[in-house]
From TrEMBL, chains A, B:
The keyword Magnesium does not apply. It catalyses: thymidine + phosphate = 2-deoxy-alpha-D-ribose 1-phosphate + thymine. Its EC number is 2.4.2.4. It comes from the Bacteria. Signal peptide: none annotated. SUPFAM superfamilies: Nucleoside phosphorylase/phosphoribosyltransferase catalytic domain (SSF52418), Nucleoside phosphorylase/phosphoribosyltransferase N-terminal domain (SSF47648), Pyrimidine nucleoside phosphorylase C-terminal domain (SSF54680). The keyword Glycosyltransferase applies. HAMAP family: Thymid_phosp_2 (MF_00703). Belongs to the thymidine/pyrimidine-nucleoside phosphorylase family. Type 2 subfamily. Residues 446-513 form the Pyrimidine nucleoside phosphorylase C-terminal domain. This is Putative thymidine phosphorylase. Keywords: Glycosyltransferase, Transferase.
Length: 527, 527
């Protein structure tokens, strides 16, 4: 039907002169960006468009990137192809290498994503295809958001949540500890200061259960468990090093990294977080896929309820629990769900060093150890110990208390800190930030509420978690009687500027409600 | 409650040293990007994150941008703030000006967007707030996609479609022609070669109706009306110049620009297109808001049905028509909907110059004028003429035919071309691309189908619309008998490479189905 010789597309590509790879010192976070000069022959020939998705190949490796068009030859010249820091690292080729570029094929799972967008129920294979493409960053921000919103609005049924969780756990690295049980704990969050993991791990590891705990850093909170643990020890060791350490000490408190375990989760979260989309199905899949990938066989789930926590009512908690239980069973994970009080922060400190101080006070049975943190940790540790087939139901709490009170938990924590790499200062006296300010009650009365969200916001403005010594140190809990002028909490900030920012936030709303004797609750507003 | 003097946040900002504005030669399409050095004090102090949304201010003006963090001082230095081309143009401040930057406040309409995301029905005020923020580019790609998908999946009711259309028509520029009727025409698209507007405008303008037609350029098609008209005349004149021209000649054929009329539409489309989301509500709002903003009082809507057109069945066409009618009535727009045949391309040429040639052949009553294009244009022009209160129902077609046949339409077209700015070559012989190839039938039989999508794809690969002379020139229509070896169409390409790309696509699927005498339909695959 046509004249002339056949040229297949591979040959056509080879016929074109490759471009020269250049590293462009721009950090585009988790988005790969490629930079190409507007006058570049290849750009003109192929009719690329700015913001188009392109495939960049060098030496048999390939990545996908979003194209930015450059008019300044100082950034990239005509024969060059620039890559942002992240993209350059992903392609893993030397500067100056020959690279090829072409329009990216749309991801193979897009038709399945479109069916979800049309409200259809997807199959196990559909979810696998979508999650694989998402983990490989083949989806654009737009496609990713469409998938997330369609799952949220279209409501996944529980079988679909299982498919999604299973698919997510199958991409990326998967750990195998070659023994059972491997216990883990997760809290669905929203409660500042709630650093129970740093108590649970030494208690259950001292008992002998394997507990390779990895945690996240703060994203919107003033501290994640990884940030707080980092006050005491190094947390960012490679998984291989971690394995050895865990086998020796039966536990660790490390940072989970961002993308080795269930990497699709990190990509999905990059969209869910800014939208505050947190549907039950997505929450369950996110949590359980990470645990399965980490090799856990038994999971204790802390589900706090409170007016400013993620879950706000008991019926909601029960529905969520049922969904977690169904999916965990399908995944072969033993699950125990504990519903806890999320109405106020746990412990006194909010911010990395302040929380680390609280944890160490509980471990050392210090006179000022926060009792609420101790009690909650013992309750959860008891339930975890009961994952041990040799521990009788109901015996866990007593066992946990003994391990804490007789110093075995403290010794185990010290060993873990040493093994991960202790920092130079005394773990029992982590360094607090130098600029402080006392925030006081403006009237007599009783504390009727602590606002988790506002207290977290204030701690962040003071510099937490970036400045490890920054944060809020609470002096009161709900129910405490206070007099006008009595301290409610103390702010710790790393710089005068940050102290000012935090103070301004306190002036608008200090996050502590006081019911005065005249029966009027004064809601945080300056008298 | 606190010590120290009060500093409000404006004062705090003023206390910080401003950065120096730098223009960074990177084209980020319609996304504003700000570049900041990682070691910049401001970056560290405020805890910005890469990809965060920031507000950049200079001299009382402000824009929103996405932050990229730079490690290379050659791109931006420590005391500088870089802006991508688009962002720099939007801020409209001189290089070297002092600029301030801060975390962007979330758009005020986000709570309403979240309610849509939760499946709620929104009010008129909700839509106004959302559309205002979208038009000001306050929404991130993620928020924008969430809104679009939520409207699509949640299904807007017809009252909501009216609210959305009305809100869209109220942001941006709004034209007022100070007379009635102001007639316009729109085709919902999907049919290559369908250049009726270039015939309707000269006919109705010659009759005396005011028809200030603006059209779009191609985005996924091989040519938009603006691209085809641009073969003959300049199309990108400013609105003010256009106004004068329209008053003199009663019509124009100009490019609608990208953002002056209903700018929110362009922003929404940037998400809808890559997702191929095209719900009836969004289509109606997009089309009618632009027409209202352009000052139209009467609209003729061409709604083609076909297996590869946007609307594929008569029931679907009727539902869409009812929605258009409801919303148009609420907006105060007189609407006439014509359902047409969209089963194959209209005219012979696909691509700017080939289509311009067809249009000029119809206007000049050329022996090779495509009769289907002529007939369709007369039918639509007749209905438009009946918007004139002095034209009796049923008389339009004859009137239109007279205006076309006696040369008044041609004269009006020539006047409009002159007024807009004619190009150097003869409009009746627009220049075709030099590299050509005939695609022929592989068997005897009759043409049973032309695939609009595949023919459009082939024309694009040949270089249309960028190369104005490139495209496909059809030799057959559905029902034509063909012999093996007989030409089906001719490819025109601007370069040998592009001819190869187009030929390769033809080899996979030439877009023409032939039913052979043995009763088997051979579907495009090479014998």
């Amino acid at each position: 039907m046509t004249r002339g010789s056949d040229i297949d597309s591979a040959a056509r590509e080879e016929a074109l002169t490759p471009l020269t790879l250049k590293r462009v010192g721009i950090d585009t976070y988790r988005e790969n960006v490629a930079y190409m000069h507007r006058e570049c022959d290849r750009y003109r020939a192929e009719g690329f468009q700015a913001l188009a998705k392109v495939e960049v190949r060098a030496d048999g490796r390939r990545i996908l990137a979003t194209l930015n068009v450059v008019d300044d030859a100082a950034i990239v010249g005509c024969g060059e192809l620039g890559l942002s820091e992240d993209a350059f690292a992903s392609l893993d080729a030397a500067e100056g290498s020959p690279v090829n570029i072409r329009q990216a094929e749309p991801p193979a799972s897009i038709p399945a994503m479109r069916r979800k967008l049309a409200g259809e129920r997807l199959t196990r294979d559909d979810f696998r295809g979508i999650i694989r493409d998402i983990a490989e960053r083949r989806y654009s921000k737009i496609e990713l958001t469409a998938f997330v919103v369609a799952c949220d609005l279209g409501e996944l049924d529980r079988e679909e949540v299982f498919y999604l969780s299973d698919a997510m756990s199958r991409v990326g690295r998967r750990l195998d500890w070659h023994e059972q049980p491997v216990v883990d704990k997760h809290c669905i969050g929203g409660v500042p200061g709630n650093r129970t993991s740093m108590l649970l791990v030494p208690i259950v590891a001292a008992h002998g259960l394997l507990c390779p705990k990895t945690s996240s850093r703060a994203i919107t909170s003033p501290s994640g468990t990884a940030d707080t643990m980092e006050v005491l020890a190094r947390v960012d060791m490679p998984f291989d090093e971690l394995g050895e350490l865990v086998r020796t000490h039966r536990g660790c408190l490390a940072w989970g990294g961002t993308s080795e375990l269930s990497p699709a989760d990190d990509v999905l979260i990059s969209v869910e977080r800014p939208l505050s989309v947190d549907s039950p199905g997505q929450m369950v899949a996110s949590i359980l896929s990470k645990k399965i990938a980490a090799g856990s066989t038994h999971l204790l789930l802390d589900l706090p309820i409170g007016p400013h926590a993620k879950v706000r009512s008991m019926p909601e908690a029960h529905r969520l629990r049922k969904l977690f239980e169904f999916v965990a069973r399908r995944l072969g994970l033993t699950l125990d769900v504990v519903i806890t009080d999320g109405s106020q922060p746990v412990g006194r400190g909010i911010g990395p060093a302040l929380e680390a101080r609280d944890v160490m006070r509980v471990l050392t049975n210090h006179a000022e150890a926060p009792m609420d943190l101790r009690q909650k940790a013992l309750r959860l540790a008891g339930r975890m110990l009961e994952f041990d087939p040799d521990v009788r139901g109901g015996d866990g709490f007593g066992l946990a208390r003994d391990i804490l009170d007789d110093g075995r938990a403290l010794n185990r924590m010290r060993a873990i800190i040493q093994a991960q790499g202790a920092h130079a200062f005394d773990p029992e006296h982590p360094p607090l930030a130098p600029h402080t300010l006392e925030v006081t009650a403006h009237c007599d009365g009783a504390v009727t509420a602590l606002d988790n969200l506002q207290l977290a916001r204030i701690a962040r403005l003071a510099g937490a978690p970036r400045a490890i010594g920054a944060g809020v140190d609470l002096a009161v809990r709900i129910g405490d009687a206070v007099c006008a002028g009595q301290p409610l909490y103390r702010l710790y900030a790393a710089s005068p500027n940050e102290l000012t920012f935090a103070r301004q936030a306190c002036e608008r709303d200090r996050g502590v409600a006081i019911g005065s004797p005249d029966g009027i609750v004064r809601l945080n507003v300056e008298g």
